[in-house]
Specification:
The protein is built from 2 helices and no strands. The chain is an all-alpha fold. Keywords: Cell membrane, Membrane, Transmembrane, Transmembrane helix.
Length: 61
């Protein structure tokens, strides 16, 4: 379930960012390019989440 929610948030936030950047640069918004960027970001986030060590003991801050 966390993978689905992470994909939805990554998809929405990357599309929002691409739309804002496109409008600030006075270029047209491209849904296909934004979707590719969203998928790449999702894969990077999931890989980093698996690589990073988890802190098993929360009392050691």
């Amino acid at each position: 379930m966390r993978y689905i929610i992470a994909f939805i948030w990554t998809f929405l936030l990357s599309h929002m960012a691409c739309y804002l950047v496109a409008s600030m640069n006075s270029v047209t918004y491209n849904f296909k390019t934004s979707s590719v960027i969203a998928v790449v970001l999702y894969v990077l986030i999931m890989v980093l989440a698996e690589i990073m060590p988890m802190n098993k003991n929360a009392s050691q801050h």
